[in-house]
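Can't paste images in this forum, so I'm doing it all in text. The chain is below; anyone willing to post the predicted structure tokens underneath?
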Amino acid sequence: MKAFLLYVSFLLTVSVCSAASQKPFFPAEEGQRSEYAVTLEFRQMHFTGISIMKKADSVLVGSLLNEFGIRAFDFRYDPVRRRIKLENMTSFIDRWYIRKILRRDLTILFSNDGSPSPFVVHRRRIEVPEPGVLVLTNMKYQVRYRFSQLND
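Text version of the structure:
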């Protein structure tokens, strides 16, 4: 019953958001490119950098770079299949359990773009603390992702 109510609330949220006709946070149109300042926090570890994303062939492709220009990983998100593929991961984060957490968190983040703030799904909290900023918190592992738009 709880899952059914969660599903109904999700459908209502999606319908309200689509009716609001607001600009999507991540690239939605073919060829559109966006840049974000990114902060990943996990316990005492902080990773800061930028993410560059582009919508190409109906797939969202992007890369996450640290502040020195070293690539952490690349990704491809297919919104139809709701799947994300991580590629070219830096050796110190290329572990199966890190990949698993990143895939699930980023899939939820990209698939729930435009949800009202705050929104909780699968033990992950998505919120928009201010315009142009999107935050996902994985409550199980205490991982926090913060995306801030750099361009309009």
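The first strand starts at residue 33 and ends at 42. The CA atoms of residues 40 and 104 lie 15 Å apart.
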